[in-house]
Every structure is written in structure tokens, then in C-alpha cells.
């Protein structure tokens, strides 16, 4: 499985042409018609963009990633930071709300789905951590639901809670 994994370090100098080129190389190497692009993370890559405001740079980058996804007929998982709970973002409680996306306006609009990982107070045994995967937006199906997960930092493992 790891032979088919390609890592391209993100930076503000990375272009969409470079990301597209690397994806096409990997697709050709593995005779695949699609790939998964994980983009980590929007705000860092948008830093130093063409616009004066970070929000405009993030918006432009989100649009470029959406175009890339459409051109390659492949999903793009773009990681984004959130605003802190201060100032009323995310309902002021650090919740998994769309308005908590940092430089959020166009991210809310552009994304087909938006998921949040959120700490929860469910009881689990150390070193495990209880988290919820909150589906805040899903253009192609249901949203506003939560999937309980267990994170094991000692194993780098995230799994669904058994029913």
C-alpha cells in the first residue's frame, strides 16, 4: 500500500500545476484512473498568495483545488484550520460549525462536504481519546450527524466506536 503513496510537501511556493503533475505521475505509475489528493493545509499554502488578505488567498486556493478535483475526476481532501472559539466563531463554544472554518466564507460554499473532528467527554480508557466526526455539510447526502470515534495516539489509529 505504501508504494502507492506519494508525499509532496506543501508550501506557499507549491503550484497547482505541480500538484496536478505529481497526481498524474502517480496515476500513470499505478494505471489508475483516479487518485486521492490530501492537501495539508489550506492556510499555510495560501500564505503569500497574490492577494493582500488571507481570506482571498484561501478562497482562490479552494477554487483551484475544486478545479483540480474536477479535471482529474478525483477527490481532494483539503485540511483547514479553525478559528478559535473566542470572538463568537463556531458559536463561541469551539463547536463544529461551518462559520468556524478559518477564512471561512468561500470554504463553506466550495466544499462538497465539511467534516470536523471534535473532542468529546465520552469515557474511554487511557491512552485512547474519544472524538466525534461531525458531518456539518454534505452536498450529496445527509448532514448534521455525528460518528463517535476512538483515537489511539500511541498507535496512530482512529476507529469507529463499536455499536
Residues in helix, %: 25-40%
Shape: globular
CA-based gyration radius: 17 Å
Count of helices? 4
Spatial sequence of strands, sheet with the most strands: 3-4-5-6
- Specify the structural class: alpha+beta
The H/E string reads HEHHEHEEEE
What number is the mean pLDDT?
81
Notes on the structure:
- With 163 residues, the chain is an alpha+beta fold.
- It contains four helices and six strands, in the order αβααβαββββ.
- The chain has helices at residues 16-29, 42-46, 54-72, 105-110; strands spanning 37-40, 76-79, 113-119, 129-138, 145-152, 157-160.
- The strands form two sheets. The chain has a four-stranded antiparallel β-sheet with strand order 3-4-5-6, with no helix packed on it. The chain has a two-stranded parallel sheet with strand order 1-2.
- The longest helix has 19 residues, at 54-72.
Brief summary:
This protein is α+β, with helices and mostly antiparallel strands and 163 residues long.
Walk me through the topology.
Elements: H1 16-29, E1 37-40, H2 42-46, H3 54-72, E2 76-79, H4 105-110, E3 113-119, E4 129-138, E5 145-152, E6 157-160
